[in-house]
Amino acid sequence: MKARDRLRIAMQKSGRLTEPALELLNRCGLSFRQSRDKLFCFGEGEPVDLLLVRDDDIPGLIAQGVCDLGIVGRNVLNEFQLTAGREIAPLAELRPLGFGRCRLSIAVPQELDYHGPQQLEGQRIATSYPGLLGEWLRTHGVAAGVVTLTGSVEIAPKLGTADAICDLVQSGGTLVANQLREAEVLLESEAVLTGPLTLPVDERGDMLELLLKRLDGVIQVRESRLLLLQTSRHTLEAVTRLLPGGPQPTLLQVAGQPDQLMLQALCAGEVSWRQLEEIKKAGAREMFVLPVEKMLA
Ligand code: ATP
Ligand code: ZN
User: Fold this and answer.
1) Which domain holds residue 55?
2) How far lies 88's CA from each of 56, 91, 132, 170, in Å?
3) Ligand 1 nearest atom to the CA of residue 54, by list position
């Protein structure tokens, strides 16, 4: 295959991960010109292009070297790692991306009084994740039948084709609607950035390194808030003790008021009204909570 000098990222063409993945890439300073067939999107500015495909095809496209990176659910990535042949180079989970959260769970009929994996012995479990389910059954020493289905897994018990299911769960609404309840969680999943274990040593590698740095900045600031407040020296200790987690705050002297300090703290997560009120009670004034737009360490 001809060496490429542009990075190619595979992502879901249309589905739950499409919008948040595009937004994340935009926040990393990447923008794309949508091509007419909408399979390939040429990157403007940076040498990074997109391939829009079914999420299930993403790990294979990277393993074959058609794409350098992919944005895909951990469930799809791990299933691929377990079911792809040994001749396929393993992929790495480069970064968790914090969206598309769900879990892969075993669910049983609501009326079943479930109290442990051994109860699944000899049962038929319907799933689109035979690799992950098979591995879980092996580690728990359970011999169960795995019925592989590509869709509508949740209705299998009602149709009588399975006794239980192993499927993705987010709110649990689909399970309730099908008179099922969650019995075991096999995997906590979210969208991840995946790529080969060894990164290319060429222009693509350089671009990838830059992209990972930007991504780290974006992921970090997404949750970060900058807290600004004023306090006098004698309440400083009490105020500092109440600050939400994060690196050490910065202190500045307020001009003309030797006793007054301005404190600046980066907080890893929301700062609630309740927290602000507590900090105020400890002696803080003039408090501001600001979103962080960009961060480059
Ligand atoms: P495609 O046409 O690309 O194959 P799909 O139907 O497999 O689409 P989606 O339903 O869009 O895919 O789900 C994509 C990913 O979103 C899943 O693999 C999973 O990681 C994540 N996800 C988050 N919540 C859920 C959920 N409640 N049900 C299914 N997937 C979920
Ligand atoms: Zn899919």
Assistant:
1) 3-100+191-221
2) 16, 9, 18, 31
3) 3
- From first to last of its 297 residues, what are the pLDDT tens digits of the chain? 556 789 999 999 999 999 999 999 999 999 998 776 689 999 998 999 999 999 999 999 999 999 999 999 999 999 999 999 888 889 999 999 999 999 999 999 999 999 999 999 999 999 999 999 999 999 999 999 999 999 999 999 999 999 999 999 999 999 999 999 999 999 999 999 999 988 788 888 899 999 999 999 998 888 889 999 999 999 999 999 999 877 789 999 999 999 999 999 999 888 999 999 999 999 999 999 999 988 887
Which atom of ligand 1 lies closest to the CA of 100? Answer: 23
Quote the pTM value: 0.85
Residues 208 and 78 grouped into a single domain? yes
- Closest residue by Cα to atom 3, ligand 1, is 54
**Ligand 1 site: residues with CB under 6 angstroms?**
12, 15-17, 54-56, 73, 75-76, 100, 102, 168, 170, 189
Domain boundary (200, 221, 242) is at 221
My answer on whether 89 and 207 are in the same domain is yes
Atom of ligand 1 minimally distant from the CA of 53: 3
| Number of domains making up the chain | 3
Residue 20 CA to residue 39 CA, distance in Å, equals 18
Q: Are residues 196 and 95 in the same domain?
A: yes
**Ligand nearest, relative to CA of residue 16:** 1
Amino acid, single-letter form, for residue 88: I
Cβ pair 59, 94 in contact under 8 A: no
Query: What region does 8 belong to: left with phi over 0, alpha with psi -120 to 50, or beta?
Result: beta
Q: Are 10 and 83 in a shared domain?
A: yes
Q: Considering only CA atoms, which residue is closest to atom 17 of ligand 1?
A: 73
